[in-house]
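**Fold tokens**
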Amino acid sequence: MTTIAVTGHMDLTEDSVHLVRDALRETLKPYAGDLTGVSCIAKGSDSLFAEVVLELGGRLVAVIPSKDYRQAKVKPDHAEAFDRLIDAAAEVVVLDHERANRSAYEDANRTLLQRAERLVAVWNGEPPSGKGGGTADTVVEARSERLPVDVVWPQGAARKS
């Protein structure tokens, strides 16, 4: 099986969701039938990736950054999708952090990269913000580890301002 992790923007515009989903489907289609997807299933890119992995018959591994992540960070508009994806996951890895914070997110991103053979980045190409734990930081880390990175940012995709 090919194991592919995801990192990506959470704040996609509503019009971008179908564009990103279609681009993820095209990116992952060559691996259908032989795919394990690793995702933190956050709102936006992570969840879209997880849904496409399952749609293509793949195995989903959910990496949850902290013990309180569901209660502290999953907003009501994402709770149903989050719970559905957790239920559909073949494996759920809850990291040892008590609280969802920058350290937990950075650890979750490291866990994604350690488990993967490639990374799909739903990323607009902007450099790291300096806060750590973001999409660009994960891409930089993956590239420094010589992990292949497929950037997905279809024409017309945008982030909420």
